[in-house]
Amino acid sequence: MTVHIQKLCVGIESIEHLAERQDMRLKRQGEIAHHTRMAPKRRDEIVDGGSIYWVIKGQVQVRQRIIGIEILTASDTGKRCKFVLDPELVPVRPRPKRAFQGWRYLAREDAPPDLEKNAIAAKLPEKMRAELAELGLI
User: Are the CB atoms for 83 and 102 separated by under 8 Å?
Assistant: First the structure.
C-alpha cells in the first residue's frame, strides 16, 4: 500500500520559489533530490507511487512524486538518504500543518487532494489560496 512523506520546505516562500530552486538544481545536477539523515523503513511503500508533500509557510501546498530512494554513505557524514523526485510540482488543496523536525509518514487516505489544473482554486494566486484554505472556504 502506498504511503507518502511530509517535509517542511525551509527557506522557501512559495510554490514558485520552490520551482525556481529546483530548476537550478536540475540544470546543475541533472536530477532533483532531497537529502535527509534518516532513511524510511517503509521504503517500498513510498516508492510504490508515494509523493513528498511540501509544507510551505505552515501549509501543505504542493507534492512531488518520489521516483527513487537511495542510501548513501560518506566518510564525513555517515549514512544519508536521498529521495529522488519527479520534477513536476502538483499543487494540492492547502492544509495547515504545524512545524515538525525531519519528515513524517502520510497515509494515502490522509493526503490532501490535488487541485485540478482547470479548477478556479488552481488559478488563484498562491497567497489567496492559502488564506481561503485557512478560512475553510476551499
Answer: no
For the chain, first and last CA: distance in Å?
28
Q: Describe the chain by its helix, strand, coil percentages, rounded to 5.
A: 25, 40, 35
Q: Is the pTM of this model over 0.85?
A: no
Beta-carbon contacts of residue 34 (< 8 Å; ≥ 6 apart): 7, 52, 82, 83, 85
User: What is the grid cell recorded at 72?
Assistant: 548513501
In this structure, the chain runs to a length of: 138
Encode the chain (138 residues) as per-residue pLDDT tens digits: 899 999 999 999 999 999 999 999 999 999 999 999 888 999 999 999 999 999 999 999 999 999 999 988 876 667 789 999 999 999 998 888 998 888 999 999 999 999 876 566 666 777 777 777 677 666
Distance of alpha carbon 10 from alpha carbon 36, whole angstroms: 13
- DSSP for 113-135 reads PBPPTTSHHHHS-HHHHHHHHHT
